[in-house]
Every structure is written in C-alpha cells, then in structure tokens.
Amino acid sequence: MKNYTKHTCILMFIFFNVSANAQLKNSMDRIYQDHLKCLDSGINMLGCSRKYYLEMDSMLNLTYKKLRASLNEAEKSKLKEEQLKWLKERDAYFEDQNRIFNEKVTSGEWGNDMYMVTYDDKADFVRKRVLDIIKRIE
After folding, report:
1. Would you say 115 and 46 are in contact if contact means Cβ atoms under 8 Å apart?
2. Cα(32)–Cα(103) distance, rounded to whole angstroms?
3. In this structure, are residues 130 and 17 in contact, taking their beta carbons and an 8 Å threshold?
4. Which residues contact 119 (CB under 8 A, 6 or more apart)?
5. Positive or negative CA dihedral for 73, 74, 76, 80?
6. Distance between CA atoms of 80 and 33, rounded to whole angstroms?
7. How far apart are CA 101 and CA 18, in angstroms?
8. Rounded CA gap, 125 and 107, in Å?
9. What is the pLDDT along the chain (138 residues), one digit of tens a residue?
C-alpha cells in the first residue's frame, strides 16, 4: 500500500507540474494573441506594445521564480549566474535598439510611431527567454 501511495503522489506531482507548465504556455499564447488583436484594432497601438512588453516582463519574473523554486542550492546559483549574463545581453540589446531608434527618428527616417516597433522588439527578446525558462520547468 505504501508504494501505491508513493506512486500516486508522484503521478499527481507530474500531472500538476505538466498542467502548470501548460498553463504558462497557454498564458504566453494568450498574451501574444491579445497583443496581435490589439494591434489589428489600429487603436492606441503604442499602448498595445507597451502592455505586451510589461506582460512579457511579468512572465519572465513569474517563470524565473517558478524554475528557481524547483532547484537545489547549486542549481539556483548556476541559474542566477545565467540570468545575470542574460540580463547583460538584454541590456546591451535594449541599448542598441534605443540607439537605432534615436538615430532613425533624429534623421527623420522614422516617426514617433516607431516606438511601438521598438517595444515589440524588446518584448520579443524577453519572450524568447520566458519560453526557454518554461521548457526547463518541465
């Protein structure tokens, strides 16, 4: 009976873990689809892109914490180092995006509506990291 209970607990853990990860993936898909709908409406497209970026940033925090909670101390330390490296890459990418934006707007090549594109590029950069973390939670 003891093995049956242990086996049942393991199956329940796997089920709930898979279910939680499926929910994370579904949330990511919903956020992306909502973003596309918002852009397609043609109304406040900059607001759509800002919201999308903020939601991706929130998902990054959520998934990072979820992954971290499942790790031992050595793995947590390794994840922290990896995340700090990724944050440096993100900051460099964002700085580059901001530089390109400023150069294009200053030269008159782009209008202020390109803020939207810059937010989308940043959100997509973060989205890739979130999806990578979700894969590792499984």
Report:
1. yes
2. 29
3. no
4. 46, 49, 50, 52, 53
5. positive
6. 31
7. 41
8. 26
9. 344 444 334 333 444 455 667 888 889 999 999 999 999 999 999 999 999 999 999 999 999 999 999 999 999 999 999 999 999 999 999 999 999 988 988 888 887 678 899 999 999 999 999 999 999 886
Tokens of 28: 């990511």
Reported residue count of the chain is: 138
- Confirm whether pTM is higher than 0.70: yes
- Assign 3-state DSSP to the chain and report helix, strand, coil percentages, each to 5: 90, 0, 10
Q: Which amino acid would we find at residue 124? A: D
DSSP letter (8 states) at residue 88? H
